[in-house]
Amino acid sequence: MGKRLVDDNGNLLIRRVGREWNPMGDLYHFLISSSWWIMISLISLSYLLLNAILAILFLLGGNCISGARPGNFQDVFFFSVQTMSTIGYGGMSPQTFYAHIIVTVASIAGLLSLAIATGLIFAKFSRPTARIVFSEKAVIRNYNGTPHLMFRLANIRTNYLIEIKIRVMFIYTETTAEGDQMRRFMDIPLVRSGTPIFSLTWMVFHEIDEKSPFFNNCNTPDTDLIVLLQGVDSEHSQTVYARHIYHCEDIQVNHRFIDVFVDDDNGERVLCYDNLHRTVPCGDERNCQT
């Protein structure tokens, strides 16, 4: 039995060895792809480390800072912070040529570090994202007398996504005649793979015929179904992406989804996101007919 290559979020479950990879060699991508707390922590640590180095350089210059206690690391450290951030309280100032040189270096370092931090935060903050939620389960049921694989998705935001394209791939392990195992990707044809506008919910259908990998049921534990979505955010006119993965055990046979649209006591139509993931057994197969 093969092991899974991806988790529920679509992340690879593979440990890579034998590659020459250094985060410092691809620092920008490393910081952008890291979580917010990692990026902010690294920026803060770099800022403190740089100020500590400058403070040591000030200490090496002897009594070169007016208003600072001679040999006091705390005073020169916070003087470096004031210099890099251009605060300038006025209580301490350089009084030797050596100190002026270090202050010049600190000023340049402060400008560069501010520009880099601002660029990184803006790039990460402004990345276009789609708040799309997929149903936790997919179902197989009859639709107009023909078995179909179904799953649905919803737009959490109140904006519109336009020119939406969706692609579904079936991933399975194939054993060749020589006994070699190969991971294969099969595109799953959909009844409708695109929509000009998407604002609420969308039910995706795949007709199960003789060519479908689900024709003989999904009974292989190491098979996965990957869903890729691409569209344009109408608010920012930028392309956004979303992905989801369904494992074999996430596909429920002879089940149907509960309707996400309900009527409240005032007769108003309500979209209930809580129902997006809810399924019920069809029971009698005729209950699965639409």
From TrEMBL:
Keywords: Ion channel, Ion transport, Membrane, Potassium, Potassium transport, Transmembrane, Transmembrane helix, Transport, Voltage-gated channel. It is found in: Membrane. The keyword Membrane applies. GO terms for cellular component: monoatomic ion channel complex; plasma membrane. One of its GO terms (molecular function) is inward rectifier potassium channel activity. Residues 57-125 form the Potassium channel domain. InterPro entries: Ig_E-set (IPR014756), IRK_C (IPR041647), K_chnl_dom (IPR013099), K_chnl_inward-rec_Kir (IPR016449), K_chnl_inward-rec_Kir_cyto (IPR013518). It is a multi-pass membrane protein. The keyword Iron does not apply. GO terms for biological process: potassium ion import across plasma membrane; regulation of monoatomic ion transmembrane transport. The chain crosses the membrane at residues 36-60, 97-122. Residues 132-281 form the Inward rectifier potassium channel C-terminal domain. This is Inward rectifier potassium channel protein. It comes from Uabimicrobium amorphum.
